[in-house]
Amino acid sequence: MPLDASKMVLSATAEAEATKAFSASEGDFLDPTKMRPNVVGMGVGVKWKKGEPTGEAALVVLVTHKLEKDQLSRNELVPARLEGMQTDVLAVGDLFAGESTEAGIQTLTRRIRPAEGGYSVGHFRITAGTIATCVYDFPPGATVSPPTHGLGIPPRYYILSNNHVLANSNAALLGDPILQPGPFDGGTAPADVIARLSRFIPITFEPPVPRASHNNLVDAAIAEGQFHDLDREIYWAGYVRGWRRKANVGVGLRVKKTGRTTNFTTGRITAINATVDVNYGGGLVARFRDQIVTTNMSAGGDSGSLILTEDNVAVGLLFAGSSLATIANQFENVRALLRVEVAEQIL
What we know:
The protein is mostly beta strands. The protein has three helices and 22 strands. The protein folds into two domains: 5-91, no CATH class; 98-267 and 291-347, Thrombin, subunit H. The protein has helices at 12-29, 163-166, 331-338, and strands spanning 39-49, 52-63, 81-82, 85-91, 115-117, 120-123, 129-130, 133-137, 157-161, 177-179, 193-200, 221-225, 230-234, 238-239, 242-243, 254-259, 263-281, 284-295, 306-309, 313-321, 325-330, 340-341. It has an eight-stranded antiparallel sheet with strand order 7-6-10-11-12-9-8-22. A hairpin with a 2-residue loop joins strand 17 (263-281) and strand 18.
């Protein structure tokens, strides 16, 4: 018998109640000095019982893997309730933000001009990630919140992807060459230079900054290219027709992405407003807040993919995951912090 999809979705009232409990409990429950075994984050989601969604709101505790109760002490168990809200436990595996170490399934690792969303890309010193789509600047003086604005002709065009894909996890210099395809897929300079790093949002890492002090919202960067080399279309998905405010991105929403490694995949949002700890390799961990958690939709090299609704509305920027789950930044945060536009329609 198929799952009742209606019970995977939270009502606005239930989501608000869970979000209130999350805000009150997150700081203490995710205190790095006393986190329970295997816990890597927490978000707002739906309670599941006996493998079935209940439609009831819950604080979803994210763990690398579930342990039997007899393997944990009383102090290590996840409480049944936090701030009056019931909890649930969701196994998400070990969350990594990384470039590719494996070949793509079909054609998205090849060189293509103009380049589309979904194809291989990367800073010249990494392996390979994915182009989300191509974007352009807000006009001078524009705010980040109006529903529309008159642009005229954008003076610059950019590839959008992750910081760790285009800016080598903070280690790049502005103006560095970006290759399409990425180096792992055969891209070399100068023949395959498609863009130059323009700006990125720095990621705070532990070490040196204690995780409790992190306020990372996005792993995002843009690189400027020539208009004739960039295409706003996303392979297999089409053109982005708008973007969705994070207040309207809900648990249970069906989503899709096109990425360099696993091509076109679909999934469903399992938690929102999530705080997650993500491993960047080399002993570096970054805590991100206000994240989207989905069912598994990705593998290494898909970092940078744009997460879309079924009708091509942008909701997230994929940046990390495991064999069990995928993690994405809220697209509203990406847009506001990088000050770029993907489509003027807000939904």
